[in-house]
Amino acid sequence: MDELEFRRTLYADPHCKDERVLAAIADDPKKQTFYKELKQLDKRMHQASEVIVPDDLAHKLIFRQTMQSHRASKVRNRIQLAMAASVAFVVGVSFTIWQQTHLLNLSKQAIAHVHYEGSYALDAQENVSLQQVNEKLAKFGGEFSEDIGRVYYANFCDFENVRSLHMVVAGENGKVSVFIVPHDDAYLAEGSTHDPRYNSQAVDLKRASIIVVGEEGVNINKMREQLKRKIQFSA
Amino acid sequence: MFSRKQTSQTSVSDGMANKQKRYEVLVLALHRDIFRYACWLVKDKAVAEDIVQETFLRAWKSLDSLKDERAAKSWLITILRRENARRFERKRFDLVDIDDVSVIDEQLSNEVEIEHRELRVIMASLSEEYREPLMLQIVFGYSGDEIAQQLNLNKNTVMTRLFRARNQVKEELDKANNNKVHING
């Protein structure tokens, strides 16, 4: 190992453990002095490099991190809250939409009711007076101002859990079933339906809906218009 | 369902507590050396403190990526150097010379203190490419291989720079001593 390489190696790393360097030092007192000087210098440089570290630095570092993760968890909570809110919102909106699409279609329901009751009401041969009809109708705050023709049957019935008036009235070309159903949010009160046997029409009035159901060929239109004209509701 | 949720939450907070503990150990073990190195890197104590804070904050955020605790030192140095580089992207500061930073060793005699101050000025005056490997060697006791890895340099380059750095320090010291002799004479 020549002089230059020796110096270069030691300058690069005074604590070099290279055998050739150590051998060179052992052989040559001058090199030994040089080595000692260099190590001395390194020691001084090390001491000089020791900048005083602020006492509270470690605390600051830990404190700032704690603050940071606290903030992060607050942000996380906010995100969770926002997600919960949007889920609630979507549930609310879809429930409303679901409810609307599942509104009870009164005209359809009326036909089902007639089918279900069968001949019980339709075959009734009573002759209910207008006064009796109006007494019943008074429950819903309504009355017929004029005679509505022959009434074969008039009684309260359960119309999808709503107490309603079920009548069977003589119409043009046959009997017409009439339902008077107080208002309810769950109803789709307007519209018409027909199935192979019956036609039905619903009309929404001030405090109740009237649904007329008749077999094919029975003029339910006329009946609907007549009832609509004759029924009156107290304010 | 509820009990399952609870256990997962407990394990999450356990994980947090573990992470917190790891972080604190890291801070206590390494903040001094990292701060000293930062001082030598930026030559300003206040800026160094800022950078060290940023460094540890970043370390906290990506602590999960540190798989081996033995690599922590070099990992932190890498973050620190990146933070330092980012600082230059943002703005160039006018730096105070390290000599202006009060670094007082009360135990040392006045003469030694003066000598240290002299050395500090010389070390601080080295260009960054020499200063950085030198301070890695002196502050962290890094070997040539470790410095090469840390700075992403070839080992020969590192050894050359270390040689030149020390050579320059020695020359400056000799020059200063000669001046003193001259003045005294």
Explained architecture:
The complex is a heterodimer of chains A (235) and B (185). With 235 residues, chain A is an alpha+beta fold. Chain A folds into 3 domains: 3-49, no CATH class; 66-102; 104-233, Protein Transport Mog1p, Chain A. Chain A has helices spanning 3-12, 19-27, 29-49, 57-101, 106-117, 119-122, 130-137, 220-230, and strands at residues 104-105, 142-144, 151-159, 162-171, 174-182, 187-188, 191-194, 198-204, 208-215, 231-233. In chain A, the strands form 3 sheets. Chain A has a 6-stranded antiparallel beta sheet, with helices on both faces. Chain A has a two-stranded parallel ribbon with strand order 1-6. In chain A, strands 2-10 form a two-stranded antiparallel sheet. In chain A, β4 and β5 (174-182) form a beta hairpin. In chain A, α2 (19-27) packs across α3. The radius of gyration of chain A is 49 Å and the shape is rod-shaped. The relative contact order of chain A is 0.09. The mean pLDDT of chain A is 84. Chain B is mainly alpha-helical. Chain B has 2 domains: 1-96, Rna Polymerase Sigma Factor, Chain: A (Orthogonal Bundle); 101-185, Orthogonal Bundle (Arc Repressor Mutant, subunit A). Chain B has 7 helices and no strands. In chain B, α2 packs across α3 and α4 (110-125) crosses α7 (155-184). The radius of gyration of chain B is 21 Å and the shape is elongated. The model of chain B is unreliable at 1-6 and 101-106 (pLDDT under 50). The chains are: A alpha+beta (235), B mainly alpha (185). The interface between A and B is large, with 29 and 46 residues.
